[in-house]
Amino acid sequence: MILTGPEITTAAGDGRLRITPFDPSQVNPNSYNVRLGPTLLTYTTPVIDAHHPNPTAELKIGDGGYVLQPGELYLGHTLEEVGSDAFVPLLFGRSSVGRLGLFVEITAPIGDIGFHGHWTLMLSPIRPLRIYAGMKIGQIMFFVAVGPVDLYTGKYQAATGPQPSAYWRDLTPLTAVTG
Questions:
Q1: What average pLDDT does range 83-87 have in this prediction?
Q2: 8: part of which helix (H) or strand (E)?
Q3: Which helix (H) or strand (E) holds 93?
Q4: Which of 4, 67, 72, 116 has the highest Cβ tally under 10 A?
Q5: Does the keyword tRNA-binding apply (predicted)?
């Protein structure tokens, strides 16, 4: 079951979910609009290596916005800190942003119960696109979980700002797999 807008407002008020800052005008019929934070990260090497940490460059979105370029992956973040110990959050790009040719959260829309922090956004434009800090970039829906809950305690917990991939932290050495 999905939470309706009025239930999102109630759950944010009684602590079952946290959205900071919370603005009632960003509540939709069954989702909450999140805004783009002021910081972007880009990877700085020509080849991104899944087995190692990758260097990044930090970019700030100024008052005049920032022009995203096709063929580049930008890691952005939500302005809001969002999380819940009771509901499963899913984040998707807003349709109006998609109609501008910007992919948001291409492959990882589901959040874990127990995660609290800024959500890292994977931004990829079809053509050059000027974006602005504070623009409504996505929407989060909340679903009721059924069954015992095991709260998230992973590597991205309490994230502030965009987070580069930490996939390499989860790797099992090949020798352990092949014996």
A1: 96
A2: helix 5-14
A3: strand 87-93
A4: 116
A5: no
Helix (H) or strand (E) holding 34: strand 32-35
| Structure token pair of residue 55 | 């260097």
- pLDDT tens across 42-55, in order? 999 999 999 999 99
CATH assignment at residue 40 = 2.70.40.10
Residue 173: pLDDT over 80: no
Token reading at 2: 């999905």
What lies within 8 Å, CB to CB, of 179 at 6+ separation is none
Two tokens at 169?
A: 């932290």
Number of H helices and number of E strands within the chain? 3, 11
Helix (H, G, I), strand (E, B) or coil at 118: strand
Q: How many domains does the chain have?
A: 1
- Hey, which residues does 93 pair with through a beta bridge? 138
pLDDT in tens, 72-84: 999 999 999 999 9
Strands 74-84 and 116-125: what pairing? antiparallel
With a pLDDT cut of 70, the percent of the chain lying above it is 96
Give how far Cα 59 sits from Cα of 10, 133, 161, Å.
36, 12, 11
Q: The domain containing residue 151 runs over which residues?
A: 5-178
| Dihedral sign of CA atoms 155, 136, 64, 104 in order | positive
